[in-house]
């Protein structure tokens, strides 16, 4: 059971922030592997403060996972793009935002790939992924209600397919020594999105309002 406590003072909040930043940088540099003592040293504090604010190393890693998905929601998933056209148009824009988010987010490949997992971290990640998939499913249901997507699409399965493709393709792209151009990645993923919701990837974007 976690013994973590939220800091009540500005000094405590700043210390917690330094620990998160230090852990994130260590994870990026090492491919997901770090020790509490290293993080505490980088943050300029004693290791016991990691346990005070996060309960354990697992709690610290879970907090990093939460922060990553919070950024993904704020910069991509929760953008209000409904005014940018029909489902295909605004979801293509969301996809473009998602690929560019991953390209500038060095923690992405760590979260999706090599970050060391234990039951607490895996549970937190599964909870956050479930929210991403449900966000996609809501969007699909909205598109169906508007008559912009076929009724035979199963929103939950399609949403899972869309995020699963994003995750695996981004790991492949970001892990390469020479990364492919973002536009190429966007094109590959858009075809996967279109297939998931039974629309033509080209014709769906060429229709006039």
**Nearest-integer average pLDDT:** 90
Number-wise, the strands total 0
**CATH class bucket of the largest domain:** Mainly Alpha
The unreliable regions are: none
The number of helices is: 10
**How many domains make up the 3D coordinates?**
2
Q: Which term fits the overall shape?
A: elongated
Architecture of the largest domain, CATH level 2? Orthogonal Bundle
CATH fold label of the largest domain: Tetracycline Repressor, domain 2
Helix and strand element order = HHHHHHHHHH
Please, what is the CATH homologous superfamily of the largest domain? Tetracycline Repressor, domain 2
Can you walk through the features of this model?
Helix content is 71%, strand content 0%. It has 209 residues and is mostly helical. The chain folds into two domains: 10-55, Homeodomain-like (Arc Repressor Mutant, subunit A); 60-201, Tetracycline Repressor, domain 2. It is elongated, with a radius of gyration of 19 Å.
